[in-house]
Amino acid sequence: MSALTVIEQVLDLARWAPSGDNTQVWRFELLGPLHVAVHCHDTREHCVYDLDGHPSQLSHGALFETLAIAASGHGLRADIARRTDSAEQRPVFDVRLVPDAAVKPSALIGAITRRSVQRRPMSTRMLTGAEKAALQAAVGDDYVLTWIEGMGPKLRAARLMFNNAKLRLTMPEAYETHRKIIHWGVTHSPDRVPDQALGVDAMTLKLMQWAMVSWQRLATMNRWMGTAAPRLQMDFVPGIACAAHFVIKAKRKPGSIDDYVAAGRALQRFWLTVTELGLQMQPEMTPLIFSKYVREQTVFTKTASLHGLAARLERDTAALVFTDVNFPVYMGRVGAGKAPAARSERKPLSELMLP
Length: 355
Prior knowledge:
about 350 residues; alpha+beta; 4-stranded antiparallel beta sheet; about 45% helix
C-alpha cells in the first residue's frame, strides 16, 4: 500500500469530524495535489432532526474546522469557498491547501481522534474559571457561551431533556431514524452509533432491541411499559450528573448555509478544547431543533398530539435557553470523567473518496 499524500493525510484526520448520528455527510474529490472538492449533503429527506438542513450544515462546518486544524500540522492554510451554484441540500466546497509560513501546528491536532460523545454520567465537579475561559476563547468573538450550572438549573435542564425524550421516543418519524443509526451488539461502529454507547443498562438495551424491530412493536411497548426507563437513564440522570449544560450562541442570527458552517467550526473548536482539557461532552440538540420547528410552524410528525407536546416544550426551552439577545446554535452538557469505552468511529478514507 502506497503512503498517503499530504492532502490525503489531512483528509484522513478531517474525516474524524462529528456528524449527526455518525452519518458522515461528505465525500471528497481530489482535483489536484493540494485541492479537494468536498461534496456535502444534508439528511432532511429521511431524518426528522434535520428538516431544514441546519444540523448537517453544522457538521459541515465541524469538518472544515477539523480539516484546517489538520492542515496546520503541515504548515498549510486551508482556503475554503462554497460553490454558489451548488444546491442547498448538496453544497460543494472547494478547499485549497496553501503553504503559509505564518501557520503553526494547532494545539488541538492531538484531540481530533480522541474527541467522542459521553452519554453516561460525568463528574459533578464545577468547571473552573480557567476551563470556562479556554472554552469561550475557543468559540471566538462571534459567539458567547452561557452556562446552566448548579443543582437547581441543572435539574431544570434535566427535566427539559427528559420531556423532550418523550417526544423523541413516541414519534414514528424519529423511530425510523433511530432504527437506521443504532448498531446493535458492538462497542465501536464505523458508520452508526454503537448500542453500547447509548448509556442504558443491559436490560433496557435488550428491551429496546426487541421493541425496535418494528414501529408497531415499539408503540405497543410504549403503551404498556411507558418510556420512563430509557428517558431516566439517557436524559434525566445524565442531565444532573455533569458539571454544567452549555449553550453556544451566535451574536448575529444565522440565516445562510455559510452562517451555520461558521457555527459548526466554532462548535468543533469548543469540542476539541473540551477534549484537550480532559473533559467529556454530550450534545443535547433536541430542544433547540424542535423548538425551532414550533416557532417556524414546521410540520415534523403526522401524530397530531405530539405537536401540542412540542409547543409546551418550546415554552420550556425558551425560558431556559433564550435568555438574552443572542441566538442559540448548539447545546450540550459537559464535565470531567473518563472517556467512553464505546464510541462511533469513521469509515476509512478510501470509502469517502469519489472516483
